[in-house]
Design goal:
By secondary structure, the protein is α/β, with parallel strands linked by helices. It has 12 helices and 15 strands. The longest helix is centred in the middle third of the chain and has 37 residues.
Length: 382
């Protein structure tokens, strides 16, 4: 069973927020349901604890979900006192537990992408290893590399996004950015995707102000993004979800930047519910709308967003305050529709910011994600 540990703060030595605390054999996840009023960590001892932490929104954000899942299993097998099976048995055990972890949040493609890559590591290790422990160690090392790579990827997204937005700006004025949900250090292994771009703009002295939506019904914006912005002393303003169109009409917003849980081959994106509405408002008001996501969020097996399966959450999140954790606020007996995500079509998106650069459209309505990834892979191999 997972247990709680109290910490005085949620920061790393460099002052940045830390939602995933890992050292070999130990994993603690910041319980984001308790923010911003309490800072407590949940001890994760095995894949089952990891599954529940993801499903129950202790940890959320597509990159963080993938890392938390991988590390929860790494902790379990590292601390396994006795395993009497063969190397093939070890590989089979890891594969089954990874499949179990995927079921915790099916919309986030980063999780299934991580599982696919980890299965490849397991398969290669099983082909040459004669002992189960060797399979386990190969898995543990691969999961740890994913943790390090995610932070580097996020900083690349921030740098690329900041540079691109500054080139698009035709005057010397600072930029004001509107964002939705939480895409920062709390949603990733560190730094963030869309919020990483905002951090980069701020560090370069070109950010006028960040605006964040409350992001109903779980309030990731008011609880988490606002928490990060205040922590980093970034000039920021919180708005109600329903105020976004009115804010854009004032002319204060230079760009909207959001994250993504899945990007399809044509550039359609699945993100937190309300993203589609923001994209429509941005298009109407002539505000460029960007998606910031690592290439691990791209799912080339899906041609368009019509193929994305949208997760529906508990009715309690709408019927009760604090995302279902507080008192009842809605009439008893009312029916509820509570999709966790919506799909923004590519024609509403100006650019997709990745760690390898910004993807722009090949035509009016679609992005060539496959071609971009192919070129990125070629440049990496040169």
């Amino acid at each position: 069973m997972a247990s709680y540990s109290n910490f005085t703060d949620a920061t790393k030595e460099d002052g940045s927020l830390q939602s995933i605390c890992y050292k070999r054999g130990s994993l603690q996840l910041l319980d984001q349901r308790k923010l911003p009023l309490e800072t407590v960590y949940l001890d994760i001892q095995d894949a089952r604890d990891g599954w529940h932490a993801i499903r129950d929104m202790v940890v959320r954000g597509a990159p963080a979900i993938a890392i938390a899942a991988a590390l929860s299993l790494a902790v379990e097998v590292f601390n396994m006192e006795a395993f009497n099976g063969t190397s093939d048995d070890a590989a089979s055990l890891l594969g089954k537990k990874l499949e179990y972890l995927v079921s915790s949040r099916p919309t986030a493609v980063n999780l299934s992408d991580a599982v696919t890559k980890l299965k490849e590591v397991i398969s290669k290790a099983a082909a040459v290893a004669s002992e189960a422990r060797s399979i386990f160690m190969a898995y543990i090392e691969a999961a740890e590399i994913m943790l390090k790579d995610d932070v580097a990827s996020n900083k690349g997204i921030g740098s690329n996004g900041s540079s691109f937005l500054q080139r698009q700006q035709h005057n010397s004025n600072k930029l004001s950015i509107l964002t939705h949900c939480n895409t920062g250090s709390l949603a990733t292994a560190g730094y963030g995707t869309a919020l990483g771009v905002i951090r980069a703009l701020h560090s370069e002295g070109v950010l006028e102000r960040a605006y964040c939506t409350e992001t109903r019904p779980f309030n990731q914006g008011s609880r988490l993004t606002a928490f990060e912005l205040v922590h980093d002393r970034i000039p920021a303003t919180l708005i109600a979800d329903s105020a976004a169109a009115a804010l854009m009409k004032t002319g204060r917003i230079n760009a909207v930047i959001v994250g993504a849980d899945r990007v399809t081959a044509n550039g359609d994106t699945a993100n937190k519910i309300g993203t589609y509405s923001l994209a429509l408002c941005a298009m109407h008001h002539g505000v460029p709308f960007y998606v910031a996501a690592p290439l691990t969020s791209v799912d080339l097996s899906l041609a368009s967003g019509q193929e994305i399966v949208i997760e529906e959450r508990s009715a309690k999140e709408l019927l009760h305050s604090r995302g279902g954790l507080g008192e009842q606020v809605a009439a008893s007996g009312i029916d509820v529709w509570n999709p966790a995500f919506d799909v923004t079509p590519a024609n509403l998106i100006f650019g997709i910011i990745t760690e390898k650069g910004v993807v722009t459209k090949t035509g009016m309505d679609a992005f060539d994600m496959k071609g971009f990834i192919k070129r990125a892979l070629i440049s990496c191999s040169v």
